[in-house]
Structure formats: structure tokens, C-alpha cells
């Protein structure tokens, strides 16, 4: 069969090899559901992040009786402190699990998809928020059941603020998980979080610190977030610097995690 004389027509539409970015950068409910299942099935992480703050509260919070100053109940103060520490520990641990994914090559597989860095970080943060809710609920339940005195409105506000302020620090775990190797992520993050908790006034009340230590504490990542969580209990005037500090640190860690995610996936 002869094809001589056949007209050869160029393609009407040129081939575009660029991948189309899906809506919301690839963020979707199915991906979020998969991530939530992975988090809740990680018994080792969940037991550790739930059991530790509960043990701390039982050992150091329950013996507290009476009031700290004025009408501020000491047991309620400790309840919020150890609950937010549990939320910090859970959210950062879940965020840092990305280091294991990197070692397994999962982050490189994600580069083959149109998933954006911001969407991936959002999925991780939401999953961390779900995990962080467990220690908060359990510690609050033990505290209120053992005599912590907190009004209904203050209780609900403290519960929500403790959960939100504690879980947003998943960005710190993500950043560390992308910076250090998988075998070192939790070894670095665990002690670092304890030091930050002491320095930020979670394990040690700011009111009894020296003026110098209070100034140092105000520059730590946990300072503003923990103060916001305690505000319904402590009352008084709301310091806008608490919000500025919390937003600044969370934004810095989030941008760092997105930057490392993009750098990591470029190696595919």
C-alpha cells in the first residue's frame, strides 16, 4: 500500500509534558484518611505520647492541693501544663515520623505525584492534631475527675486551646524529620522538647523564675503557645506577644519543612 502523496499534517495541539496541578495542591480526603490510619496504628508512638504525660501528671500534678495564687487552682494549672506537653510530644513525634518515610523512599515516590509541599504538610499537621487530641482528653479527664477546679467555660476553652496550641507544633517535628536521618530524629527531638518545656515554663512556672529566665523563656517556641492555653485559667490581660511568638515559630518551622520537602523530592 503506497503512502506516497499522502499529506502529513502536524498535530493541531502540541503535546504538553507539564503535569497539571490538581485543586488544593493535591490535598484530598483519601490521602488524609490513609495518614490518619497510619498514625493511629502506630501503637509505639501513641502509647509513649499518651502514657508519659499521664504519668507526669499523676506523679507531679495530683499531689498539688489548694491554689497557686488567689483563685488559681494548682491541680488545674498542672493539668493544663502536662496536657499541652502531651500534645506537643504527640504532634512532634507524628511529624518527625516523616524521617522514616524518607528512609523508605516514600518522599521520593511523592515526587512522582502532583502533590504540593504545602498540601503534604497540611495532611501531616491534621493527622498530628488527631493524635495530639488523645493525651489532652485523657489528662483533662483524670484532672477533672480528681478534683481540678475549673469553671465550665474555662474548661472548654482550655481544652480546645491546649489541643490546638499543642498540635500545631507538628511543624517542628516535620522540620526535624527532614533535616536529620531517621535513626536520629526522635533521639534529638525527645530531649530537645523536654528542654524547651522547662525553658518555656511548662514544667516550671514562669512566675517563680528569675527575671532573666523569664526573658529567655519568651524567645522559646513553647512559651507563647503554653501561655495561650493557660489563659482561660489564669485570666488577666491577654498579651498579644503570645500570639506573635506562637505564629512566628509555627510559620518558621512550617516554611522550613516545606523547603526541605521540596529539596528532598528534587533528588528523584
Automatic annotation (TrEMBL):
Q: Where found, per UniProt?
A: Membrane
Q: Which domain of life is it from?
A: Bacteria
Q: Which UniProt keywords apply?
A: Antibiotic resistance, Membrane, Transmembrane, Transmembrane helix
GO CC, alphabetical:
ATP-binding cassette (ABC) transporter complex
- Domain (ABC-2 type transporter transmembrane) ranges: 34-222
Key word Cytoplasm present: no
Q: Does the keyword Transmembrane apply?
A: yes
Q: What does the record say about its membrane topology?
A: Multi-pass membrane protein
Pfam families given in the database record: ABC2_membrane
UniProt main location, coarse: membrane
Please list every transmembrane segment annotated in the UniProt record, as residue ranges. 45-62, 82-100, 121-142, 154-176, 188-207, 240-259
One Gene Ontology term from the biological process aspect of the record: response to antibiotic
- One MF term from GO for this chain? ABC-type transporter activity
**InterPro entries reported in the protein's UniProt record:** ABC2_TM, ABC_2_transport, T7SS_ABC-Transporter
Under PANTHER family, the record lists: TRANSPORT PERMEASE YVFS-RELATED (PTHR43077)
Its protein name is: ABC-2 type transport system permease protein
